[in-house]
Amino acid sequence: MKTNVFIQARMSSSRLPGKVLETIVGKPMLLHIVERLKHATLVDKIVVLTSDEQSDDIIKDMCENHSIDCFRGSLNNVLERFFLASEEFPADNIVRITADCPLVDSQLVDEIITKHINGNADFTSNCHPPMYPDGLDVEVLKLEALHKAQLNASTSHQKEHVTPYIFTHPEQFICINFNAPKLIPTYRLTVDHPEDLTLVRKIYGALYESNSNFNLKLILKLLEQNPMWLESNRQYARNEALQGHLTRDLEI
């Protein structure tokens, strides 16, 4: 059974433009994500999915320079981008990762893929509801579920965020949530604002040199030792963009 990772990336973030290529310990953030995901033993191929807008040419160039597969498609209809990428890079299952998650944990990715396959699920995640810190989100979907979503999704919210049609229709799909083995702090470890990037750079600065594939356990231990680091981005809500688009859909 083949599993591909699709990393969703664009330069035109409304809150922190160009964040996906911001430098962390000398490398672009997106490159760190790819390198961390290479440690996932159940992943067959990693593909960066960016838009066909001129502003995202630089992402394609970075991928070419580092021999990373890259697919380009619609800026706003990311569901269609995933669907078309799945035709060029076919697999039984697709892992969706967003390029604002430079602390993605390869071991956690493997664990969620395993639960997805063993449960014969259409969709498996650790974020519906959230069970891990923001920035450790992993979604796995069957190819057939992606195709069904592409056929039936109708709102801009469903099309931009790829998976909402699936997890909001449990009568059509077998959906599994991957629960944390114990209560894990709801830290904000994603990158949407300058304060988020500052925190991530501190984490990399402390852990990367001794272990470039440092895991969530080491991150949590570090933050327990440095709780003041967490104050800088505490004011930001989880999934701001997703909630904003959902509100606009309801207003239409």
| Ends apart, CA distance between termini | 41 Å
Helical percentage: 25-40%
Number of helices: 10
Strands in their spatial order, largest beta sheet = 5-4-1-6-8-7-9
Number of separate strands: 9
Biggest sheet overview: 7 strands, mixed
Low-pLDDT runs: 243-248
Radius of gyration: 17 Å
Average pLDDT for all residues: 93
Order of helices and strands: EEEHEHEHEHEEHHHEHHH
Structure class: alpha/beta
Roughly what fraction of the amino acids lie in strands? 15-25%
What does the overall shape look like? globular
Task: Please provide a brief summary of the model.
The protein is α/β, with parallel strands linked by helices and 252 residues long. The chain is built from ten helices and nine strands.
Question: How does this structure look, described?
Answer:
There is one protein chain. With 252 residues, the protein is α/β, with parallel strands linked by helices. The protein is 38% helix and 15% strand. It contains ten helices and nine strands. It has helices spanning 29-37, 57-65, 78-88, 106-118, 143-152, 156-160, 164-167, 194-207, 216-225, 240-251; strands at 3-8, 23-24, 27-28, 45-51, 69-73, 93-98, 123-125, 139-142, 175-177. The strands form two sheets. A seven-stranded mixed sheet has the order 5-4-1-6-8-7-9, sandwiched between helices. The chain has a two-stranded antiparallel ribbon with strand order 2-3. Helix 3 (78-88) packs across helix 5. The longest helix has 14 residues, at 194-207. It is globular, with a radius of gyration of 17 Å. The N and C termini lie far apart (41 Å). Mean pLDDT is 93; it is low at 243-248.
